[in-house]
Amino acid sequence: MSNLINNIRSFILTCPFLEGGRVNVDYIGEGMGYSIDPLPCDPIIQRYTDGGAKKQFQFAFTSQEEYDQDARINIENSGFFQAFDEWLEEQSFMGNFPELEDGKLPVLMETLNSGYLYDVNEINAKYRIECRLIYVQEV
Questions:
Q1: Nearest to 94 by CA among 11, 18, 7
Q2: Cα–Cα distances in angstroms (integers) from residue 65 to residues 10, 30, 109, 118, in the given order
Q3: CA–CA distance from 27 to each of 36, 38, 48, 84, 124 (Å)?
Q4: Alpha-carbon distances of 41 from 5, 38, 66, 79, rounded to whole Å
Q5: In a 10 Å sphere around its CB, with 0-12 CB exposed, 13-18 middle and 19+ buried, how is residue 40 labelled?
Q6: How far apart (Å, rounded) are the C-alpha atoms in residues 103 and 61?
Q7: What would the pLDDT profile of 80-138 be if each residue is shown by its tens digit?
Q8: Residue 35 in 3-state DSSP?
Q9: Residues 108-117 pLDDT 10s
């Protein structure tokens, strides 16, 4: 599992509009930044008679951004997730996926919802978009 999340992290780092490219796993910190947070889900979508399976790995892509009462900044933050969603869809359509270990063949990477405001304090807001990687696990 740890290889899977690391491979997803490396893939997301190729996104052209990630500022600074600092992407953590399960940690966002105090300042601006991004994190990939594994989500609980049933990993098996479908079992095959040969013992293989179609599986999924769900994760939240979280960003911590500047936040204030100015609607302009909050609209920019929402626009980021729309652009991220479109980038992910385009990568999946072109067959660009995270590299997976032998026996795992990526099929689809997609967002499961639109980005949403997740948590707010006086100066920062956390936004989150939930995603998943679907792959075939061969035997």
A1: 11
A2: 21, 10, 24, 11
A3: 8, 11, 36, 20, 15
A4: 14, 9, 31, 27
A5: exposed
A6: 26
A7: 888 999 999 999 999 999 999 989 999 999 999 988 888 888 778 888 999 999 999 99
A8: strand
A9: 999 999 888 8
Local structure of residue 86 (DSSP, 8 states) = H
Which of 20, 21, 19 is CA-nearest to residue 11? 21
Contact 55, 134 (CB under 8 A): yes
Interatomic CA distance for residues 52 and 64, integer angstroms: 38
71: Cα separation from own chain's centroid: 25
The Cα 127–Cα 35 span in angstroms is: 10
Q: Using CA atoms in the order 136, 5, 116, 134, what is the torsion angle rounded to 10 degrees?
A: 0
- Give this prediction's pTM: 0.86
